[in-house]
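User: Fold this; tokens only.

Assistant: Input:
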Amino acid sequence: MDPFTFSSVARIVFGRGTFGQIGQLAAELGSAAMIVTNAGEPGGGGLPDQLGESLRKADVRHAVMRQRGEPTVEQIDQAVQIARREKCDLVIGLGGGSAVDAAKAVAGLLTNGGGPLEYMEVIGQGKKLSQRSAPWIAVPTTAGTGAEATRNAVIGAPERRFKASLRSEHLLAHVALVDPELGVDVPPDVTARSGMDALCQLIESFTSHGAQPMTDALALRGIESAAAALPRAHADGGDLDARQDMALAALFSGITLGNAGLGAVHGFAAPMGANFPIPHGTVCAALLPHVIRANVAALRSAADGQRYLDRYATIGRLLFPHAVPHDIDAGERIERTISAANLPDDEAADAAGEAAATLVTQLDIPPLGRFGVTADHVDELVALARRASSMRYNPVELSDTTLVDVLAAAL
């Protein structure tokens, strides 16, 4: 067994109704909170108002910044200025991955000083964060990015046409508070694209060059949970069992990607999200089947390809029984599970890509062309994707020609 290291959030509070503990948890960490949120609407009785009331009862004063869209360098700078002005000693990220990542970056910059570009990978100076972040609590409301458990904050720099990360173990949340009930009101389209992001992260970390025993165990459990629960959560947002399984899968995906790395899907996601108005999860979902197929094909002629082909075969067997209408009867699902278990390895590896494609169709994921991406953009996007840190973890190096074909197939 190769040596490995493993890092995770110091404290995870998981379960239905745990959002009620937020005031107490915050009071243990600070006296003035900076809330970064994209959940609900202020003053409309939504989650930010519930959070504010909980903080008031716990004698924690607070300031609020609304995070709109994916965080940018300018937005993070503004949030840090507000937090300093209000003398905040605690940060809370409430909402989807964008809000949680923004909170993470603010917490890190409060103790390390400077601006995001000093520390960002690829497009910034890449300085190391030397100090533990200010105390911060991650409260995800969508089951997707797993940002509550990652050590990187993805930030866009529109003027540079790229997204990149602040990355350090110093950025890990002090508390990840994961309450599946917060996802009940998430619309079906957001449920679909967020859930496919989580599934993609689990698959990519399981097939990454950085995979190791700890991440393998979590990734396999997460893939199995997401494959079964995502179609159900999409069909019925009030299905709390499905919401719970998706919240767990997303949490696991954050832990696994932070320790094992990702792959070509997320290599594409960075430049595409920076250049087009495409939700991150939609990019990942649209590309996932095509990247799996390309990887499987390339691995069949790679020197060490069999170890990764075996992993794709495992994924195929996990996905195949669930890549069907969610309401098929139990008998048919059992038959599909038995059929998947008996697939020869080559067929099971191919089934991974086919099952992912079926899920994309079931969940009504739109093609990338709907967001303005055309064939004329493909070559430039491939060149930009080559610079992304996730590319180096892909299980096999894909040629530019193959990457062009992958992106073209997702348009």
